[in-house]
Write a structure and sequence with these properties.
One of its GO terms (molecular function) is cyclic-di-GMP binding. This is PilZ domain-containing protein. There is one protein chain. The chain is an alpha+beta fold and about 100 residues long. It has one domain: Beta Barrel (Thrombin, subunit H). It contains 1 helix and 6 strands, in the order ββββββα. The chain has a 6-stranded antiparallel beta sheet.
Length: about 100
């Protein structure tokens, strides 16, 4: 879920992470009301039906496209960085196993 931290749009929207790194993320999402430097809160869970933890990050938009936004993380909480590393490790393991 993506929540605004400004008044540019008021309702949370759903998005899909397409690329992620320690410094930022690209999210496919509606971009009509999003401009550069819009502050957002990303809530990332493990997917539908899973009971894993939900992680939250604050970020700001550094790029917009027709399909989504590129965001830079704006959060120095070490616990949130640990959560990001955990997600990146899980993705790496899934990719190495292949489909199935």
């Amino acid at each position: 879920m993506i929540e605004p931290l400004t008044d540019r749009f008021s309702d949370p929207v759903q998005g899909r992470i397409r690329d992620i790194s320690l410094s930022g993320v690209y999210v496919e999402m509606p971009t009509e009301a999003v401009a550069k430097y819009t502050r957002l809160r990303l809530s990332v869970g493990t997917g539908e039906g899973n009971t894993g933890p939900t992680r939250n990050w604050q970020c700001y938009v550094v790029r917009t496209t027709d399909d989504g936004v590129g965001c830079m993380f704006d959060d120095s909480d070490p616990g949130n960085i640990d959560g990001l590393l955990e997600i990146l490790r899980d993705l790496s393991v899934r990719r190495s196993r292949g489909p199935g």
